[in-house]
Amino acid sequence: MDEFIKQAASAAGVDEAQAKKFVGMVLEQIQKKSPEEVTTEMDSKIPGARAVIDESVNQKDEKEMPCMPVLDMIKNLIDQLTGGNAGMLEIVQKSGVTPEQGTDMLKKILAFLEEKLGAETVKKITAQVPALSKITA
Hints:
This is DUF2267 domain-containing protein. The protein is mainly α.
């Protein structure tokens, strides 16, 4: 995973810490929305992915306030209204990358996942995470 994160950072022109946070948050989003077999496959075929996810999810932004249940409901509603893009927009914001840098890294992530998991699994992922299907189009 470390080598991939370096490549993603270089491709997007961001530092490795930002890339690691972005990649971890995207992988976490994928695992949340994908079928269990995809999560299991990611865990078994991508060594270090779980550690990157756990590290990025556990990092607390100093400016971030605890999220109340009402805010979670609003986030879910916005996600539904934007066709699943709200989660990715939040990832871009929290990781400190620009939308363009995020798009560059998403392309790298999808290529990496296709290499590790195969095209069929990536199709399952993009079917569950609408923002990613727009990247591949």
